[in-house]
Amino acid sequence: MDRHPTTRKRDFLVVPDLTTKELRAVLDLAKAIKKAPRAYSKALEGKELAMLFQKTSTRTRVSFEVAMHQLGGQALFLDWRTTNFTLGGLEDEVRSLARYVDVIMARVFKHADVEAMARASRVPVINGLSDAAHPCQALADLLTIEEKCPATREAKVAFVGDGTDNVCSSLIDICALLGVAISVVCPSRYSPPAGKMAALEKAKLANHVTVTSDIGAGVKGADVLYTDTFVSMGQEGESDKRLEALKPYQLNEAVVGMTGKEPFIMHCLPAHRDVEISSELVDSARSIIFDQAENRMHAQKALLLFLLGEA
Ligand code: CP
Ligand code: NVA
């Protein structure tokens, strides 16, 4: 039996799959859920989430799984390698999965895979990280920034490191859509893809985003300094080249000093201490990294309620 014969399903593959108004609503709901989690303990009673992973994960897996439990539903963990996604066509396997569950979350190497899943699935598909985007991380990031910087629309976020990074891409999108200034500070060969900047121009959102290779200029006045790994999952073959090019862009006390402010420090984790970020910053009083990790769960609860029409 088709569990969802009539409802028009929504997916969350990239941040702009939600409008500014919808993102606002999801973030506000996340705050309400975080404040009174027990009030939502039956909100997804009887609902099932399938979580499919081509890559490893700590936060994404656990935050989604616990989120479903705390909302009264269930989550199923599927390691790609032990499913017949490795034998059958992706479409047939997703169409089958969608007959058992109400929502699917997938972590994939190629963004095209999660797009193909969304086309084949009759239930909502959530991108739990692809090579191009990490939209769930971006929801948690903005939730965290709004908690720490109440005047968020006057705040400046600086992402320092790999401008081609999936986390950076989704952070740019959510900042632009919510009107938060973001500066991407990266070597020019690791700048955000031209296509991404063109899409922001087209959507008249580019005025919120600056890209520079000049660290001092890029981080000046920043209220939040953010970084991610220099070598993402799937890029291990480029490791030496990336580490060499990105080395000058390590987040450390010297960069903090260039802001002229007392910035918060963010990292989506997992962190490579003393590579993209100094160990002392991860543990410093200005680090909000573990609040950010916790907020994955609160933000995703709100997202699940939104996509399942229970918001
Ligand atoms: N930030 C994040 O997605 O962490 P995991 O890779 O552990 O899921
Ligand atoms: N950019 C990193 C994020 C991990 C959460 C990666 O893709 O490996």
Mean of pLDDT: 96
The fourth-level CATH homologous superfamily of the largest domain is Aspartate/ornithine carbamoyltransferase
Total beta strands: 9
Shape: globular
Task: Give your account of this protein's structure.
The structure is a single chain. It contains twelve helices and nine strands. The protein has 311 residues and is an alpha/beta fold. The chain has two domains: 15-134 and 296-307, Aspartate/ornithine carbamoyltransferase (Rossmann fold), CATH 3.40.50.1370; 135-293, Aspartate/ornithine carbamoyltransferase (Rossmann fold), CATH 3.40.50. It has a five-stranded parallel beta sheet with strand order 7-6-5-8-9. It has a four-stranded parallel beta sheet with strand order 2-1-3-4, sandwiched between helices. Strand 3, helix 4 and strand 4 form a beta-alpha-beta unit. Helix 1 (20-35) packs across helix 12 and helix 3 crosses helix 4 (111-120). The chain is globular and about 55 Å long. It starts with 19 loop residues before the first helix and ends with a helix. The model has no long low-confidence stretch (mean pLDDT 96). The structure holds phosphoric acid mono(formamide)ester and norvaline. The site of phosphoric acid mono(formamide)ester has 9 residues, from helix 2.
